[in-house]
């Protein structure tokens, strides 16, 4: 008995259709991301490699989905590494706070 006709929905056990859906979602999310270049192209490639069996009466199919998305814009900040009670922490800022706080109203 012959199997059902080969389609994009059933090839590789439905993996191609699922991969298309996942990749399309990633592209749509990227299109809506305000931190990406609005003019950059987003691409989705579905690649199928057919490797013939030695008897040439069939083939193995290898499938791969690939999307190319623009990356998020680069941002930069400065952090200060401080030690509090023996534990290191990162704090927003670019310089060491004063070691001794000035006391108002005292005279020397």
Fold and architecture overview:
- There is one protein chain.
- With 108 residues, the protein is α+β, with helices and mostly antiparallel strands.
- It has a domain at 11-68.
- It is built from 1 helix and 4 strands; from the N terminus they run αββββ.
- It has one helix at residues 15-32, and strands spanning 43-52, 59-68, 79-84, 87-92.
- A two-stranded antiparallel sheet has the order 1-2. A two-stranded antiparallel sheet has the order 3-4.
- A hairpin with a 6-residue loop joins strand 1 (43-52) and strand 2.
- The longest helix has 18 residues, at 15-32.
- The mean pLDDT is 87.
The low-confidence parts are none
The total of beta strands comes to: 4
N-end to C-end Cα span? 102 Å
Strand count, sense and closure of the main sheet?
2 strands, antiparallel
Q: How many H/I helical runs? A: 1
Share of helical residues: 10-25%
Strand order of the largest sheet: 1-2
| Secondary-structure-derived class | alpha+beta
In short:
This protein is α+β, with helices and mostly antiparallel strands and 108 residues long.
């Amino acid at each position: 008995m012959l199997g059902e006709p080969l389609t994009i929905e059933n090839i590789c056990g439905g993996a191609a259709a699922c991969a298309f859906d996942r990749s399309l979602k990633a592209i749509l999310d990227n299109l809506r991301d305000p931190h990406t270049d609005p003019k950059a192209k987003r691409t989705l490639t579905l690649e199928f490699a057919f490797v013939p069996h030695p008897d040439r009466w069939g083939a193995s199919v290898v499938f791969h989905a690939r999307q190319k998305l623009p990356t998020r814009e680069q941002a930069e900040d400065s952090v200060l590494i401080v030690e509090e009670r023996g534990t290191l922490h990162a704090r927003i800022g670019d310089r060491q706070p004063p070691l001794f706080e000035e006391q108002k109203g005292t005279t020397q």
